[in-house]
Design a protein that fits this description.
76% helix
Length: 336
């Protein structure tokens, strides 16, 4: 029952993440670079800091924890910087492929590579058991099926229909960007592994990964801040921050978007606290999160009519892919 409860918590976090782009549509009179960095302040700084504070016992501090292991601290931030590159290209993948297909390809790549590379890069190769490998394979099969559905969509729709669903639809360019985004985004889990020793003894297992999560998002914020401020300068959009009439509205929806985004990793931390009895699921939890992100992003894709106009055969292939992804979440437990 504890394992099921943990998976439900991770699923709730995945649903929230897949919904985080909806509030952004309510932002007014700001360029992409302006709202992206403001929502990042909430998603990658404020909320992760508040989450990490839950893992700090009375009389202790986060700074003391990080200072106790500077190598792990800086390596975790470093992988966060690399993950930040993935976050930037992640947005482009949805620009060219739409929410459903863009997230599917990027998150699928992220799921597989993040689950396998994190233990390999941090000296925990023993965590990669047969059940974990099979789970990753099943996940990638589900992603591949959804990719096939996306290709069928690209071939069946007219250019006008493609642009109607996704304004800048470009399948070849979108696939290349999504694969790059997935590869770099996998660094998030590598960072979590790198910082898994950064916790206080006796802390509730649900909170132990939250300090490392803060360091990874801090590194990602640095990457995104540099790029967004550069774009402000290049596009002469500094004036966005002086538009007092829209600040209340935009800050509110940036906060909501940031909270929904952070929920995935807060949910991952809480969910893993209930999976401690299954080492395979502990290793596979990141892959589960990414797979469920794909499932829910495609649900949003359907709601936003990105698959409108596709044949019944294409929709059937899409649904099969989603079912495979849902099944993949339980594979390690069924095999183990």
């Amino acid at each position: 029952m504890e394992i099921l409860f943990g998976l439900i918590i991770i699923a709730i976090g995945a649903f929230c993440q897949s919904s985080c782009y909806v509030p952004i549509n309510k932002i007014k009179d700001w360029s992409w670079e302006s709202y992206w960095i403001i929502q990042g302040v909430f998603a990658w700084l404020v909320l992760p800091l508040l989450g990490a504070m839950l893992a700090v016992p009375a009389g202790q501090s986060l700074m003391a924890l990080f200072a106790s292991n500077p190598h792990a601290t800086w390596m975790t931030i470093f992988y966060g910087v690399l993950w930040g590159v993935g976050g930037l290209t992640f947005g482009l993948s949805m620009r060219y492929l739409g929410v459903a297909l863009g997230q599917s390809i990027a998150l699928g790549t992220c799921a597989g590579l993040g689950t396998i590379l994190a233990p390999l890069f941090t000296g925990h190769a023993a965590d990669i058991t047969t059940s974990v490998v099979i789970g990753v394979i099943v996940t990638l099969v589900g992603i591949a099926i959804i990719g096939i559905a996306g290709n069928m969509k690209a071939q069946s729709l007219s250019e006008e229909d493609k642009r109607k669903a996704v304004k800048d639809f470009n399948f070849p360019k979108g696939i290349a960007v999504a694969l790059l985004a997935g590869f770099m985004s996998a660094c998030f889990n590598i960072g979590l592994y790198q910082g898994q020793e950064l916790h206080f003894e006796g802390v509730n297992p649900m909170f132990t990964t939250l300090p490392a999560t803060l360091l990874v998002t801090l590194g990602g914020f640095a990457t995104n801040a540099v790029y967004c401020l550069y774009q402000n300068q290049r596009n002469h959009t500094w004036g966005d921050y002086r538009k007092g009439s829209v600040w209340a509205n935009n800050a509110l929806f940036c906060l909501l978007a940031g909270a929904l985004w952070y929920s995935q990793f807060f949910g991952l931390a809480l969910g893993k606290g209930f999976l401690t009895g299954s080492p395979a699921l502990m290793t596979f939890a990141f892959c589960i999160l990414m797979a469920l992100n794909v499932v829910f992003s495609n649900v949003w894709g359907i709601i936003l009519k990105e698959w409108q106009g596709c044949s019944r055969k294409t929709i059937t292939v899409l649904v099969v892919g989603l079912i495979v992804l849902i099944i993949s979440s339980f594979v390690p437990q069924l095999i183990g």
